[in-house]
Inverse folding.
């Protein structure tokens, strides 16, 4: 198991905290798009300090770099090792635009 250096660990802990806010804090400005839609974080990663360490280990083993952002492969499912990956912010933005386009296309068929 690879270990994060102290700077990467600090960044990953902050990313993890932001993920928790999106999913579990109704006062978060983006909660409605995450927790409000039932998006959660897997039990493995929510298991106290052991869970955070599991998230850190998964991140390092899946090529985390500070310039990348976490992405849910299936946006209808939560954050878990099976459904997450690290991608560039520009790729994440293009995916969001494509998904919005697909949704509009589907809605127009209704």
């Amino acid at each position: 198991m690879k270990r994060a250096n102290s700077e990467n660990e600090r960044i990953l802990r902050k990313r993890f905290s932001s993920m928790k806010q999106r999913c579990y804090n109704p006062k978060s400005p983006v909660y409605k798009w995450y927790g409000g839609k039932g998006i959660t974080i897997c039990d493995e990663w929510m298991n106290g300090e052991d869970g955070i360490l599991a998230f850190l280990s998964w991140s390092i083993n899946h090529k985390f770099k500070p310039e990348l952002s976490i992405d849910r492969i299936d946006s209808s499912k939560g954050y878990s090792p099976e459904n997450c990956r690290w991608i560039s912010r520009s790729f994440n933005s293009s995916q969001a635009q494509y998904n919005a386009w697909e949704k509009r296309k589907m809605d127009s068929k209704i």
The first strand starts at residue 68 and ends at 72. The mean pLDDT is 86.
